[in-house]
Amino acid sequence: MASLWKVGGITVGVLVVVGVVVGSITWAVLASRGPSAPELRELDWWENTVIYQIYPRSFKDSDGDGVGDLKGITSEIEHFVESGVGAIWMSPIFPSPMVDFGYDISDFYDIHHEYGTMADFEELVERAHQNGIRVLLDYVPNHASTESEYFIKSEAREPGYENYFVWADPVLPDGNNQSIRQVPSNWLSQFGGTVWEWSEIRQQYYLHQFAIEQADFNFREPAVRQEMLKIMRFWFEKGVDGFRLDALPHLFEANPDDHGGVYPDEPLSGNMWLNPDQIGYTTQLYIRDLIELYDVVYEWRDFADSWVKQNGADTKILLAEAYANISMTMLYYGDERSRVGAHFPFNFDFITSLSAGSNARDFAYVIRRWMTYMPSGNVANWVFGNHDNNRMPSRFRTDMVDGLNALNMLLPGVAITYQGEEIGMRDGYVSWEDTVDVQALNQGNASNYLQYSRDPARTPYHWDSSTSAGFSTNPKTWLPVAEDYTTINLRAQKLVDRSHYKVYQLLTRLRSTATLSHGSYHVEALNQNVLVLVRHLVTYDTYSLVFNVGTEADTVDLAKISLLQEPLSVYTSSIHSRRVNGDTVPLGEVTLQPGEALVLRSPSA
Ligand SMILES: *[C@@H]1O[C@H](CO)[C@@H](O)[C@H](O)[C@H]1NC(C)=O
Ligand SMILES: *[C@@H]1O[C@H](CO)[C@@H](O)[C@H](O)[C@H]1NC(C)=O
Ligand SMILES: *[C@@H]1O[C@H](CO)[C@@H](O)[C@H](O)[C@H]1NC(C)=O
Ligand SMILES: [Ca+2]
Ligand SMILES: [Ca+2]
């Protein structure tokens, strides 16, 4: 599939030329008459969409128990339509003991009782589809709850399930003396402590890369691979439009057969300031990014594509969650033997590589890095926050909300919004007493838990300024509502002329223009503070973002950007900018305040 920014059949007079545009602009002009409109490749439904991540526990509570649920989501379908998003993806909604809030699934084929019933889910899908909203689920292949039937049967060595999980005998340094058994290796869990947990029932250790209650599946077991496809098919048949694939780098661990029959210890990282139980104390060579995992991802893509073909359905998309280095990340798109993988791996660069201290050059570099490494013919994507990381305005600065949302919406490919980003929601304060995140409880204490806790990014959504921010009629919610809800909430932002939400709506609307869906992109740092992104498509209006990411006012000369032409007008701007929609901006020197962002419209260059 051709990628968005190099869509090419351009009709110029009577000649057809192909304009390939990567980074810089190199249009071939072959005719004397003025250019006519380019032929635009029709995009598949997902290629230019906005995906909105819902954390179901915290989105909307329909029955007053203080926990978000499916009926709550269904009741707010209108919010997605008004916001201009094309798809929602929900963090796990399946039965779970909630040790890791749904990422510890005990039944992959049903709905968690707090969230509703299968009928509620079917209604959600139906209502969403009626309103043009696609529905994506979270697929958690790496592990199952130790309360799942899979685990219970495997622990009991029930035929067919013996090898469903990664079971290992203890190491007995003193002959056969079981009372001084040791774990098979020094591997560390993502949530701290050893990955190995002893089973009295089976008299073996099982492996868990996350919580003790999340046992890792054994992906070398064919029955597990089959079961994964069965789960995927089940939800495809329920009408879901695709999956976000959880924790993929952790699918495989080193095989003892390749290491003389033992689980090899990992080398120590030398990070001596860490406690030996903490992730980072060892260098993870044997429990993440193993090359075998990609074959499984490619297998899932084959499965999804053939299901679509057999059923004459619209494309089902697979989105890989993988915190990995750039080369291991890009491999999720596909490999050099032209095997195809995920539709895209999430681009976490705005989370892992940029922060409040980043300057405009850092931004330009990080954006170009993704575009440079992405194998050709693929679609980019941009993530600014999620349920595992501090919220976007808290990681960056609160004065950057509109500029960051503009960057998200103006960059080529798929934009991903975590619930609350559209209104600039910040991290909520969650006391140690109120903390429920297993990552914080396992690794932190009353003084340092905030460096581990994901609760601040998971506090309930701010609908309005009523009880519990309109999230629930219950004043007590599963996590406390952030205190700033009286000022930062959706209703308040709908009522005023200028708000993050109003800017967000204008930005998502802009994405339906040919310039944004098919145009080239050009990104540069005009200086240390000011980032410029230009989207251009011959014969269509040009849209550009000029964004001061720095903490001081700065003046730049827009005339230096060759794709801009007069008249330049403000399409939308950050809420504190003194330049408002419709204002004219000179093609010359412009001073931008810290965090100020202008989205400008100009005639096609
Ligand atoms: C096994 O080890 C325990 C603990 O060190 C010790 O008390 C016990 O005597 C040992 N048993 C045998 C049979 O060596
Ligand atoms: C990325 O990670 C892989 C696997 O851990 C490693 O082999 C490779 O050298 C790394 N590449 C870069 C660019 O860091
Ligand atoms: C919390 O843990 C840190 C690191 O292990 C330690 O330095 C600190 O004293 C602990 N604080 C409390 C209140 O236990
Ligand atoms: Ca509820
Ligand atoms: Ca695993």
TrEMBL record:
<dbReference type="InterPro" id="IPR013780">
    <property type="entry name" value="Glyco_hydro_b"/>
</dbReference>
<dbReference type="InterPro" id="IPR045857">
    <property type="entry name" value="O16G_dom_2"/>
</dbReference>
<feature type="domain" description="Glycosyl hydrolase family 13 catalytic">
    <location>
        <begin position="53"/>
        <end position="458"/>
    </location>
</feature>
<dbReference type="GO" id="GO:0005975">
    <property type="term" value="P:carbohydrate metabolic process"/>
</dbReference>
<dbReference type="InterPro" id="IPR017853">
    <property type="entry name" value="GH"/>
</dbReference>
<dbReference type="InterPro" id="IPR006047">
    <property type="entry name" value="GH13_cat_dom"/>
</dbReference>
<dbReference type="GO" id="GO:0004558">
    <property type="term" value="F:alpha-1,4-glucosidase activity"/>
</dbReference>
<feature type="transmembrane region" description="Helical">
    <location>
        <begin position="7"/>
        <end position="30"/>
    </location>
</feature>
<keyword id="KW-0812">Transmembrane</keyword>
<keyword id="KW-0472">Membrane</keyword>
<keyword id="KW-1133">Transmembrane helix</keyword>
<dbReference type="Pfam" id="PF00128">
    <property type="entry name" value="Alpha-amylase"/>
</dbReference>
<protein>
    <recommendedName>
        <fullName>alpha-glucosidase</fullName>
        <ecNumber>3.2.1.20</ecNumber>
    </recommendedName>
</protein>
